[in-house]
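Record 1 of the preview.
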Amino acid sequence: MLVQILFYVFSSVLIVSALGVITARNPVHSALSLVLAFFSSAALWLLIEAEFLAIVLVLVYVGAVMVLFLFVVMMLDIKVEQVRQGVSRYAWLGWLTAAVIIAQMLSVFWFRGLGVDATVGVPPSPINHSNTRELGEVLYTQYVYPFELAAVILLVAIVAAITLTLRRRPGLKQQDVAAQVAVRREERVHLVKITPTKRKASPSDEAISS
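->
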C-alpha cells in the first residue's frame, strides 16, 4: 500500500515537472523543472529496486548534464525569440512522438482487456541480492565487447570535440602562453617622471582665503 502511494506521489510530481519543462518561459526555470523530473524518475527507479539506475540518473544527468545545461543557458546569450520561432519547424516531430507514447499507453490497457496484466512487476528480490552486481556481471561478461566499443566511440567523440574547439578560424584571438611567460617588465611597464609644478592662485581662491 505504501509503495503504491509513493508511486502516485512521485508520478504526479514527475508529470507536473515535465509539463513545467515545456511550458516555462524562462529557460532557467525549464532546466530546474527538468532537474526535479530527474529526481522523481530516480525515486520511481528505487521503488522497483533498480538502485543502480537511480544513482546513475542522479549522478550523471543531474550532476553533470544538467550543470552543463544551466551553464549554457545562463552564460551564453541565447536568442529566445529566435528559438521560439524555430519550434514550429519541428512541431510535427513532437506530435509524432506524442502519438507514439499515446499508442504505447493504449496498448497497455488493451493487453489488460485481454486478461494480461502488464502492470505486474517482478517478484521481490532477496535481502542479499544486488542488482548492481548482477548488471556488472552481465555487462562485463556477455556484453563486454559492445561496452568497450561504446567507450571507444565516446573517446573519439571527446577528441573530435576538442579538435573542433582548437581549430583555427579567421578573426579568432588565441592565447600565446609562451609569449606571455617570456614577457619582460620593460615591455609592459613604462615609468614616467613628472616634475611637480605649483599652481597659480586664481582670484576665486584669493577671495575664499580672505
